[in-house]
Amino acid sequence: MEEIMKNANKQKNSISGNNTSGLGRKIALIAVAAVVVIAAAVFIGIRVYYGSHWYPDTKIGDKDVSGMTLSESVKAMEKVYGSYQLDIKGRKDGKLTINGDDIDYKVGVEDAVKKAFEQQHDKFSYSNLFKNNDTKIEPKVSYDENEVDSILSSASIVKGDSSYKVTAPVDAKAVYSKKKNSYQVVKEDVGNTLDKDKFSETVKTALDNGETSIDVSDEKKYPDIYEKPALTSKDKELRREVNVCNATALRWVTWTIHKGVQESATPEDISKWITYNNGKAVLDNQAMRDWMEKLCLKYKTLGGTRKFKSHTGKMMRLSGGDYGWQLDYEKMCAQLKAGVTKKISRKLQNDYINNQDETAKKAITVTQKPEWLGTAYRYDPKNKMNDWNKNSYIEADLGSQMVYVFKNGKVIYSCATISGRPVPGRKTTTGMFFIKDHARHRVLTGDNYATPVANWVRITWTGTGFHQAEWQPWGSWSPSLYKVRGSHGCLNLSPSSAARIYELTKYKQMVFMHY
To answer: Does the pLDDT value for residue 39 go beyond 80?
Structure first.
């Protein structure tokens, strides 16, 4: 009996536990079912809602229509286009606004909005609710094209005005840079000149599409709407031009004109003589000669005006003659050409481009020695005409027919002379000359004479000089005797005077000859 009771209790307990477990499962199932029903209701509700509304994150053009019904979005777009304007942005802050009223702009948006709505709702997908859903519409648009053309043709963004300058594109080019002391490629300037036809086409397309803004400075979107330069800085031929021109220009051609005084044809100077043609640097020879002419004239004193103290103690001014500094123009031109065309290592020139220091400059310097046609006693950088020995010189006063020899600034000897007869071909020249040579004996020749003379002292290369003339009537000499007994241009002296002049004068000594 006891055993029976135990089994009965076990069975009772077993039945009681089974009842409790079943109830939990029922509750869980009910909860899950409720969640499923709610979720299904939510999903169904979302689908139903967005079946008649625009998806989230949806814009038509610039207008946000997210969550709107079709009719609401139609009204919204009608409002947008009811006050329509197209804002155009261009390069260099160029702007243009076209108002719809000015071009009789009309838009039928209902069919276009409906079409876009239907396209969005063609196939429902919950994933579409979490992405960008911007769209465009193609409304039925009409406007007055003639008015549009008129607005575009007079717009400042097209033709420019006082506050907005329109500039044409400028090609990239190879030029000499003073800042970098070498040829460089100067980047092109794209300017802001619109291609009128393409601009008009772009604007009308925007109007047709109902767009409210366009940025024609966007080169990716509108690559050909602005006129373009023909050459850009990426052009290979420009790079070649830079290299070729630098090979010629990068050098100094230098002369030491006087002690401590140098002159150079610099890379900048040379660049002005270069024209690039068919892959070569062509030099302008005339421009080079003009440059050298200025350099030669800068240091020329020959023939210039000088002041000197005459035998009277007064200061006199005299011009002309062959005394003074003068560079040999033709030889200097040849030196310049040789220096500019001399081959220089490209490595040395590149070192100069990169370093620009004195060592690099020296490495590309071509040194020339100046060639002189005429030289003088000295060079004064402060007064280039102060080029003679003011203590030692000779004065030939042709008016008084006297010769004076100065030493230490004072007259140490004077004598009478008979100069050239004052007729064409025989009159003694005036100016400043220098003693060119001495000869104890010489034969002077002319068209119809050959005369041996003694104590010859040459003054000019054309035959004028001091010499002995024993045939002249020195006992009856007068300052006017030269008018009837004048020489062929030389300064005739008595035998004793000729000997003294020969002894007292020196090579290169200045001779002032005046009336």
So the answer is: no
